[in-house]
C-alpha cells in the first residue's frame, strides 16, 4: 500500500500538552484493546474536522478514490476534493440505513485509496453492526486500502447498542486512522480539541500538516481536555441515559406532528425523520415552514445526500429530499418549548395532516 505521507517537508513537532497523548493511549487500550504509542501514534488537532482533513491530506494523491457512505456529513467530501481525490458514494439503504454488501464491494477499483466510516452515524443515528464492520474490514484488507473513521459519537449510543472501533478488528489497526474529539462527549464543541490516532508514519504526516495549518490546538483547552478525559465510567453512562431520554421525548413529539420515524437512532444526538408520503413539499420547503410558522429549526436531509438522489423508494417517492434531521442535544427547557410550538402549529395549521397532505 503506497501513500505519499506529505513528502518533501521537514517534520516539525506539534505542541501537545504533557500527558494528553498518554491518557488517550490508555483510553483506546481500555475501550478497544488497541496498543497505541503516545509518542508516535497520536496527533492532537483543532477538532475532529481538522484531524480528518489532515488525515486525508496525508494519504490522498490527486486521482485517488475514497469511498464514503451516503448520506454523510458534508465536510468529508469537501476535504477529499480539496486534496484532489475523488469521492465515491455508496448509498446506505433506507429506512434502516443498512449496508448493501454488493454495492459496497462493487465500488472498489484499482484507484481506491481509502474508505471513510462514521459510526455512530451523522445524520441517521445508525451504529454499524459487527457484521457490517467485518464486511468493510475484509474489503479493505483484500483491496489494500486505508480507512479513516470518525468516532466522535462513540460514547453516545442507546438501547444497549455498542460502538465497535473498526481498528479493533483483525488486521485493521495498521490500516486505520481514527479521528475523534472532545466536542460531543463533553458538550464543548467550541473548544476545538480533537485527535487522530494512526500508524506512526501517517501520524507523523498528520502532525506535519497540522503544524503548518493551525500550529497548535489551544493549550488551555488541552489542559481542560486532560481533566475531562479522566472522567469516571458513571459520567459516560449518565450522558447516555440523559440523551436517550431526550431522543425518546423528541421522537414522540415529531411523531405527533405527523413526521415518520421508521428508524430509531442507535447513536449520536440526531433523529432523521421522513416526511409523510402525502406531504407534497420537499425537505427544504418543510424546514422553511417549520421555521416561519413554528419557530423550530431542522436541517434539510438533501444536504447529506450526494448520490442516488433519484433512487425510487416506492411509487413516485424519491428519498433524497424526503428527510429532515433534528438535534436533541438541547436543554430540557428548549425541548419543551419546541414541543409546545410544534403542538400549537399542528392545532393551528394542521401541518403534516395525513388525511389532508396538501396542507404540508
UniProtKB/TrEMBL annotation:
Describe the family membership recorded for this protein in Swiss-Prot or TrEMBL. Answer: Belongs to the class-I pyridoxal-phosphate-dependent aminotransferase family.
- GO terms for MF: transaminase activity
State the superkingdom.
Eukaryota
Q: Which cofactor does it need?
A: pyridoxal 5'-phosphate
Kindly provide the name given to this protein in its UniProt entry: Aminotransferase class I/classII large domain-containing protein
**Keywords in UniProt for this one?**
Aminotransferase, Pyridoxal phosphate, Transferase
| CDD domains in UniProt | AAT_like
The reply on keyword Mitochondrion is no
TM ranges: none
Q: Which SUPFAM superfamilies match?
A: PLP-dependent transferases
Q: For the Aminotransferase class I/classII large domain, which residue ranges apply?
A: 22-302
Record bears the keyword Ion transport? no
